Amino acid sequence: HLVNTYGAFGTVTRVRHELEIEGTDAATPEGASWRAYAFRCKPGDPGRRPCWISPYHLRLDWLMWFAAIEVGEYGGLARETWLVALLDRLLAAEPGVLGLLASAPEFAGGAPTFVRVVVYRYRFTDAGEPGWWRREFVGELVRPVGRDDPELRALVDEG
C-alpha cells in the first residue's frame, strides 16, 4: 500500500514544477547575483537526495508543492496568496519564518534587498547520471520585489 496510486495523488500531475525563492542584497535587481532559499524537503539543489518524511509533511514545503502545481496547471498563482506574505517576511528576515527553512542565504545587513520567485521543471536523473534531479528553467513567476514595493505592500495590506 505504500506505492499505490491511492486517491488523487497518483495522478496529480505528470510534470513536476518547483518554485524557488531567491534573494539578493544588490542595490538593484538588474544584473544581481541571486541566491536560493533552501527548503527542508522539497527539491531544490539538483544534487540533493530526495528526503523521506512520514507520516506527516512539512507544511511550508507542502504548500510550495501545491503552489507549483497551480503554476503548472494554470500558469500563475490565483489561490496561493499566502506566498506574498512569505516574500514580505523573507524581506524582513523574520527569524520565525527563516526557522521553517533548511537554510537561508546570508545577506549584508541581514535581510535581502529583493526577492523573486522562479519556476523550474524537475525530472529525476537517469541511472548513471550525476545528481538526483535534472532541472530546466521555466521562467520568472514573481518579479523582483523589495520591502517598499508599492504592489507588494498593497497585496500584503489587503491580505
Describe this structure in words.
By secondary structure, the protein is of the alpha+beta class. It has helices at 59-74, 82-91, 95-98, 150-158; strands at residues 16-24, 35-36, 114-124, 133-145. A four-stranded antiparallel β-sheet has the order 2-1-3-4. Strand 3 (114-124) and strand 4 form a beta hairpin. The radius of gyration is 16 Å and the shape is globular. The model has no long low-confidence stretch (mean pLDDT 88).
Quick summary of this structure?
The chain is of the alpha+beta class and 159 residues long.
Question: What is the mean predicted local confidence, pLDDT?
Answer: 88
Termini gap: 40 Å
Structural class by SSE content: alpha+beta
Uncertain runs are none
Count the strands? 4
Outline the biggest β-sheet: 4 strands, antiparallel
Principal-axes geometry comes out as: globular
Please give the share of residues in helix: 10-25%
| Topology as a string of helices (H) and strands (E) | EEHHHEEH
* Computed Rg: 16 Å
What is the percentage of strand-forming residues? 15-25%
Count of helices?
4
In order across it, which strands form the biggest sheet? Answer: 2-1-3-4
